[in-house]
Amino acid sequence: MDPLDAILSSHDLVAVLGREVAIRLVDISPSGCLLESPSRLEEGTTGVVRVMYEGGQYMDEVRIMRCRECEGSSALYQLGAEFLWTSNPREASLRRVLAKLQASALKAAPLDSSIRTM
User: Fold this and answer.
1) Does the structural domain 16-117 have CATH classification 2.40.10.220?
2) Strand partners, 87
3) What sections of the chain are H helices per DSSP?
């Protein structure tokens, strides 16, 4: 039997489909963050937010709690995301660089950011 056939014929096969979505980090707090995106994400969607800041990459798992269209724009959505405590914050956690990522710094310099949905 072909290895792929063996996997596909399994009775306990689980798969996850994900996609990468461009975002802009608008605000951040110890419990979550506010994001803007040209893509609408369903409430309850989970994913990993990745932010490039000062040469480092910082990531955290999040759940989208709110998604609404930005006022005056039909092409942008505001996403309210809460941090998931599936593990303790790692060295490269967004929560560990929270003090550096203050609202004033976020407005001063755009950050290379994305969310990888799961």
Assistant:
1) yes
2) none
3) 3-8, 103-108
Q: Are 118 and 18 in contact (CB under 8 A)?
A: yes
Residue 26 near residue 106 (C-beta atoms within 8 A)? yes
Contact residues for 81 (Cβ-Cβ < 8 A; gap 6+) = 32, 33, 34, 35, 49, 62, 63, 64, 65, 115
Q: What CA–CA distance (Å, rounded) separates 98 from 65?
A: 20
Measured between alpha carbons, how far is 53 from 72 in angstroms, rounded to an integer? 29
For 9, 17, 74, 118, the CA distances from 12, given in Å and listed in that order, are 9, 17, 42, 19
Q: Where are the domains of the chain?
A: 16-117
pLDDT in tens, 26-85: 888 889 999 999 999 999 999 999 988 778 888 999 999 999 998 877 789 999 999 998
Instruction: Based on DSSP, count helices (H) and strands (E) in the chain, helices before strands.
Output: 2, 7
**Are the CB atoms for 79 and 44 separated by under 8 Å?**
no
